[in-house]
Amino acid sequence: MGHARPTVVLTRSSDDNAPLRERLEALGIAVIELSTAALVDLPPQPDAATCLAQCAQAQVVAFTSRHGVDAWCRQLGAQSLQDAVQRGASVAAVGKGTASALERWGIAVGIQAKDPTTGAQLAQSIGDHVMRLPTHRSSADKPARTLAVQGRQARPELVQGLRDRGLPVDTAVVYENAPPAPPTPELVVACAQADAVYLAAPSAADRVLAWVPQLREVPLVVIGPTTATELLERHGLTAAAVAASATVDAAVQALQQVLANRTPFLDPFDRSPA
After folding, report:
1. Can you tell me the distance from the alpha carbon of 240 to that of 8, in angstroms, rounded to the nearest whole number?
2. What is the chain's pLDDT, residue by residue, as a tens digit (274 residues)?
3. Which of 147, 182, 254, 270 is the most buried (most CB within 10 A)?
């Protein structure tokens, strides 16, 4: 083992890593950050005027990440969402982080995915909400529309889940996950000696394995079954563990279980600070 303490590589942006990093470090687990995400605003697509018009007509405006919330509000204004809520539309969030971002911009959250906090669950929650709307029941030929605010190459579960329920959905693309600069040689060496890697997206696996091929030999813990499937199909690798949900608790438990197999002194269920 190349590090004095059990060591995990985290692959999200520093801000996104923070809750998991803090939990792991409190458990005495060392963290190396190898960011695979540079999240940048994109000019709204299809265009700003169309996105604002769709927002003004939608019965639900849905966000699957805080980055989408911030990019929308920076470019198109929080007022557009506040106006939507004022006229009776609902703003939907995939989880606590997304909901907190909306609240920071002064936007009330009407629908939130819970247990699990996924795009598929958000589609279910939106579908249940829409079915209860009086306008939906009285206008079967014109069901309530949802505007899904997304990043480029967004995961398909939300939009596909709504369409599978026969609900019309528009999309607004306002940011992208661009590749950051490659890691330094020193960081590559440190990562190659880690005990586990946490991957929160298929793109993270692509970039990590391109930068540090040695990590093919290190246990890879993934955020969910979609990333596990992509890891196998794209790279021929089986995840050492799949987190039970996208929560920090689930990630910690999956990582601890993997680390316990490599470092027997580590109790995978001990959550007390080191």
Report:
1. 13
2. 457 799 999 999 888 899 999 999 999 999 999 999 888 999 999 999 999 999 999 999 999 999 999 999 999 999 999 999 999 999 999 988 899 999 999 999 999 988 777 888 999 999 999 988 876 544 455 778 999 999 998 888 999 999 999 999 999 999 998 888 899 999 999 999 999 999 998 989 999 999 999 999 999 999 988 899 999 999 999 999 999 988 899 999 999 999 998 754 444 444 444 3
3. 147
- The H or E element spanning position 176 is strand 169-178
Whole-angstrom CA distances from 112 to 37, 109, 117, 120 are 25, 7, 8, 12
Q: Are 38 and 228 in contact (CB under 8 A)?
A: no
Output the pTM of the full model: 0.73
Q: How far is CA 144 from CA 126, 133, 175, 202, 227, in A?
A: 10, 8, 25, 32, 31
Which residue(s) pair with 221 in the sheet? 198, 241
